[in-house]
Automatic annotation (TrEMBL):
The lineage of its organism: Bacteria, Bacillati, Actinomycetota, Actinomycetes, Geodermatophilales. SMART domains: HTH_XRE (SM00530). It comes from Geodermatophilus pulveris. This is Putative transcriptional regulator. It comes from the Bacteria. InterPro entries: Cro/C1-type_HTH, Lambda_DNA-bd_dom_sf.
């Protein structure tokens, strides 16, 4: 996420203001110490002109063989 923010020429404070969070929240997200809510992840991605998947990785998926049915 930091790389995308720098490419967008935004400071942490500017990104935080546009996402309506504190700069400390952006610092924590960039450091991997805080998992953003879906709402925040979407807001950050939109502001950076990116997708949630590009910024935060693909969500874990479960294959059909891993899911147990009701029996």
């Amino acid at each position: 996420m930091r790389r995308a923010r720098l490419l967008a020429e935004l400071t942490q404070a500017e990104l935080a203001a546009s996402a309506e969070v504190t700069r400390q929240t952006i610092v924590a997200v960039e450091a991997g110490n805080y998992a953003p809510s879906v709402y925040l992840a979407l807001a950050i991605a939109e502001r950076l002109g990116s997708t949630v998947e590009e910024l935060f990785g693909q969500p874990a998926t479960t294959s059909a063989g891993d899911v147990q049915g009701d029996g």
